[in-house]
């Protein structure tokens, strides 16, 4: 844990910087515009400074987005494996640069930012495996690589399945089945009378973070962890070769989900600092949140051999999966099964950790009127294997957006009001490294100037409906865009209508609307929202939940995530990719070109109410009352926020009605909108959690769906009686909401 010394200093710096800018702004307001001046004979900027979003240009952008071009992009991007820092990744760095520097369709400029990222790779000379051994003889070994089922998955660079950051070692012991490897799962085994000391635990993906399965197991004395994907969780129960890829989109029995076994994000050796040559690096032994014990993922074909031969009591019904047997928990193998009942399981891990140069590729379009205001759009570039869906479906979309914008730019038809920055992030799969290092390197500048961050990682999980996540101000701009894009599923409806059919909620203010999800920390938006407090959103097409309950698209992080898989099963025709490109591009243009930022600050009010209401009822409220803790100050703060937001929106309406609103007044309200999200930051709120400074969206472990700090402190207090932490976190929330209200109130 690196503490917050530096980040606190940086925040003070930002506050001072903001004050200075404001002062300069006021001075300019007094002296820059001569009184009584009209349009005639006025300087040129008077004609352009009030320019608003051009709807016909927006339409022309959407018309030019071609599904065929996205398909071509995807074919090029997924042609060879491109795991972070490998040759395939470096080839794509060149591809991105050449596209963004193209004289006909490129951006104003593009460049490469390099960081020395701490990564982890298997040893090609000593492949990892999970084996069954008796005495010194080998009885069974899991496969070293996935079965070759289609031509386009073969390549010498396909990395064998492994758990990135799991330490090397060859622990051996009796096998137990530990469900999802949650702390409660291991506890359940102990409650069943099983001694976990020295065992090897086999766990299925889901329920707990990848690294947590090993971190939790080690606390119970487990010596090694095996992780597999259960067909119940990913294949709607389908487990045979006949029913899986290449015959359907389901995961073949040999498929293995790779992944980073890392609970935090950003480069692990340089928390809070960009991973440059000059940067101080902590000791490897100081890293937290990675497996303390050897860990290895396997396919369900091999997991079946292990689980279906276990001895011991039956596993609880909630732990049963779709392998063809009743799951038992062990320890060890049953008599009369495939393996001698005395045999052990050994986890053989030979991973090596290395610092390697990883690049972000950055593309820029300079804004005409407000070049110092940034709209950011990004996706990572690195994959685990061919990565057709993750992440190339998103990169294929980003390249089509930049092609169309680049063309309009080079033809002199358009230049955005604000600057646009595109990021092709490196080493996301290892823990959001490229994007996090970028936010660390440009911490002050990005906090002072960024309007919003749009993330499109996997652009199409499935072809049924839009799925968007974001903070409440993003709702208005995403809705506006989604209403203008034709749904690929029907000839009449919009992406918005189709979205509302699939995922909706009843809003007390708007009635039935699509449900905008909340941002966790699953992709590169994490450091933008949690660390910098920049309004962020993530946009994709996704599943029809009436048709599949798959945890994620079945080929995720496996050798089967290929162009052929995407082309045949995820989005034949690429019309969903096209719909995402149009929607995300529409959002981008609205943010870059609208005179007044199209982010409705009032929408935060509904979310604050929702979080408040969870705390203000039932046991939660009763327990608070019993400890003399009142929610009244929070209620008052939220009331103040909603009033301030409504007044603020009225001021904007009036301003827009003016014949020629003062550019300084416009700039002032835009800055208030931009800085609203920043008002919810408190870098001292969660001293033990890297990067989580946003008081509304920080991660939490409690099940109570209220403010995260309050929820966790409450859950803890019910157990320990420490109600002072609840008082502290209530204060933190009240103070954040009051600050947010005060950001929106009339400035003087
Ligand atoms: C393992 O050793 C035990 C006794 O030490 C012996 O009974 C058994 O046959 C051995 N198994 C193998 C596969 O060698
Ligand atoms: C994988 O299978 C395809 C045919 O499906 C074949 O063309 C290719 O040579 C195979 N590759 C390897 C390494 O076996
Ligand atoms: C676990 O087993 C090891 C030997 O295998 C022993 O030294 C240790 O004391 C055991 N720990 C517990 C908590 O039983
Ligand atoms: C499931 O296992 C049983 C024997 O345990 C076998 O008869 C049956 O064919 C298996 N089913 C499948 C789908 O593999
Ligand atoms: C293990 O299997 C052998 C036969 O292979 C049997 O004699 C023995 O009783 C079994 N041990 C246990 C604990 O079930
Ligand atoms: C990364 O690249 C820089 C030059 O750009 C070089 O000085 C450094 O040694 C490289 N680091 C690694 C780990 O390759
Ligand atoms: C979605 O993909 C499936 C094939 O996986 C296809 O049958 C269906 O027509 C597609 N739907 C849309 C709306 O494109
Ligand atoms: C899903 O199924 C439910 C229940 O049958 C139905 O009400 C709903 O409209 C379906 N959703 C979609 C998007 O088809
Ligand atoms: C902004 O949000 C408020 C409440 O959330 C709503 O009443 C208002 O209509 C919205 N304004 C616009 C322009 O959408
Ligand atoms: C506090 O909450 C617990 C449940 O978490 C409940 O059992 C208990 O009755 C509550 N205490 C009060 C005073 O309401
Ligand atoms: C709550 O306040 C009342 C009245 O001030 C006092 O009698 C009581 O002891 C307090 N309870 C707690 C748990 O602090």
Automatic annotation (TrEMBL):
The keyword Isomerase does not apply. One of its GO terms (biological process) is proteolysis. It is found in: Apical cell membrane. Its cofactor is Zn(2+). GO terms for molecular function: aminopeptidase activity; calcium ion binding; carboxypeptidase activity; metallopeptidase activity; protein homodimerization activity; zinc ion binding. Residues 629-745 form the Transferrin receptor-like dimerisation domain. Its main location: membrane. Belongs to the peptidase M28 family. M28B subfamily. The chain crosses the membrane at residues 12-33. PANTHER family: AMINOPEPTIDASE NAALADL1, N-ACETYLATED-ALPHA-LINKED ACIDIC DIPEPTIDASE. Aminopeptidase with broad substrate specificity. Has lower activity with substrates that have Asp or Glu in the P2' position, or Pro in the P3' position. Lacks activity with substrates that have both Pro in the P3' position and Asp or Glu in the P2' position. Lacks carboxypeptidase activity. Lacks dipeptidyl-peptidase IV type activity. Residues 173-259 form the PA domain. GO terms for cellular component: apical plasma membrane. Residues 360-567 form the Peptidase M28 domain. Homodimer. This is Aminopeptidase NAALADL1. Keywords: Aminopeptidase, Calcium, Cell membrane, Disulfide bond, Glycoprotein, Hydrolase, Membrane, Metal-binding, Metalloprotease, Protease, Signal-anchor, Transmembrane, Transmembrane helix, Zinc. InterPro entries: PA_dom_sf, PA_domain, Peptidase_M28, Peptidase_M28B, TFR-like_dimer_dom, TFR-like_dimer_dom_sf. It holds the Pfam family Peptidase_M28. It is a single-pass type II membrane protein.
């Amino acid at each position: 844990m690196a503490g917050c010394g530096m980040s606190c200093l940086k925040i003070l710096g930002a506050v001072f910087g903001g004050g200075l800018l404001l002062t300069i702004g006021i001075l300019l307001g007094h002296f820059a515009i001569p009184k009584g001046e009209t349009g005639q004979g006025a300087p040129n900027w008077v004609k352009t400074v009030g320019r608003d979003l051009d709807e016909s240009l927006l339409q022309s952008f959407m018309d030019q987005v071609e599904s065929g071009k996205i398909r071509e992009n995807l074919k090029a991007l997924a042609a060879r494996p491109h795991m972070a820092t490998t040759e395939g990744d470096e080839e794509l760095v060149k591809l991105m640069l050449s596209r963004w520097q193209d004289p006909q369709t490129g951006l104003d400029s593009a460049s490469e930012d390099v960081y020395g990222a701490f990564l982890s790779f298997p040893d090609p000379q000593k492949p990892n495996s999970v084996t069954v051994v008796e005495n010194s003889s080998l009885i069974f070994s899991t496969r070293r690589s996935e079965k070759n089922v289609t031509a386009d998955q073969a390549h010498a660079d396909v990395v064998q399945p492994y758990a990135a950051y799991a330490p090397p070692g060859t622990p051996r012991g009796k096998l137990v089945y530990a469900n999802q490897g949650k702390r409660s799962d291991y506890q359940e085994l102990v409650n069943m009378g099983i001694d976990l000391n020295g065992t090897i635990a086999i766990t299925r993906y889901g329920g707990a973070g990848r690294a947590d399965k090993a971190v939790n197991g080690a606390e119970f004395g487990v010596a090694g962890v095996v992780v597999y994907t259960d067909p119940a969780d990913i294949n709607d129960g389908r487990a045979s070769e006949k029913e899986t890829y290449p015959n359907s989109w389901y995961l073949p029995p040999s498929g293995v989900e790779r992944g980073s076994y890392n609970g935090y994000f950003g480069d692990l050796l340089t928390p809070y600092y960009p991973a440059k040559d000059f940067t101080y690096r902590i000791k490897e032994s100081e890293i937290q949140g990675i497996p303390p014990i050897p860990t290895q993922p396997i396919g369900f074909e091999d997991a079946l051999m292990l689980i279906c031969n276990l001895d011991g009591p039956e596993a609880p019904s909630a732990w049963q999966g779709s392998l063809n047997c009743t799951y038992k928990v062990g320890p060890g193998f049953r008599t009369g099964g495939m393996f001698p009942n005395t045999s052990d399981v050994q986890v053989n891990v030979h991973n090596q950790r290395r610092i390697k140069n990883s690049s972000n590729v950055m593309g820029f379009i300079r804004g005409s009127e407000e070049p110092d205001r940034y709209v950011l759009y990004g996706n990572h570039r690195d994959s685990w294997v061919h990565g057709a869906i993750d992440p190339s479906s998103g990169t294929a979309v980003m390249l089509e957006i930049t092609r169309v914008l680049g063309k309009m730019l080079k033809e002199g038809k358009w230049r955005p009001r604000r600057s646009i920055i595109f990021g092709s992030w490196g080493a996301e799969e290892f823990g959001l490294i490229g994007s996090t290092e970028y936010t660390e390197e440009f911490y002050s500048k990005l906090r002072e100037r960024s309007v919003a961050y749009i993330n499109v990682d996997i652009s199409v999980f499935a072809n049924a409906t839009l799925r968007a996540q974001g903070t409440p101000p993003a709702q208005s701009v995403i809705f506006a865009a989604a209403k203008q894009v034709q749904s690929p599923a029907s000839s009449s409806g919009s992406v918005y209508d189709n979205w509302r059919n699939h995922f909706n909620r009843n809003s007390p203010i708007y009635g039935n609307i699509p449900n905008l999800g909340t941002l966790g920390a699953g992709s590169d938006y994490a450091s933008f929202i949690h660390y910098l407090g920049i309004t962020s959103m993530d946009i994709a097409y996704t599943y029809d939940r009436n048709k599949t309950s798959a945890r994620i698209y079945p080929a995720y992080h496996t050798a089967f995530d290929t162009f052929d898989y995407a082309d045949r099963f995820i989005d034949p025709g690429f019309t969903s990719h096209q719909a995402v490109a149009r929607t995300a591009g529409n959002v981008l243009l609205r943010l870059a070109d609208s005179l007044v930022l199209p982010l409705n600050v009032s929408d935060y009010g509904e979310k604050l109410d929702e979080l408040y209401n969870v705390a203000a009822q039932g046991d939660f409220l009763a327990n608070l009352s019993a400890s003399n803790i009142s929610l009244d100050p929070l209620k008052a703060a939220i009331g103040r926020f909603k009033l301030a937001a409504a007044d603020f929106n009225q001021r904007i309406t009036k301003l827009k009605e003016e014949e020629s609103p003062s550019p300084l007044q416009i700039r002032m309200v835009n800055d208030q909108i931009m800085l609203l999200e920043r008002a919810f930051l408190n870098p001292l709120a969660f001293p033990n959690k890297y990067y989580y400074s946003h008081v509304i969206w920080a991660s939490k472990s409690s099940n109570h769906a209220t403010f995260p700090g309050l929820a966790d402190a409450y859950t803890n207090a019910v157990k320990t009686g420490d109600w002072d932490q609840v008082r502290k976190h209530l204060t933190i929330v009240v103070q954040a909401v009051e600050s947010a209200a005060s950001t929106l109130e009339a400035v003087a």
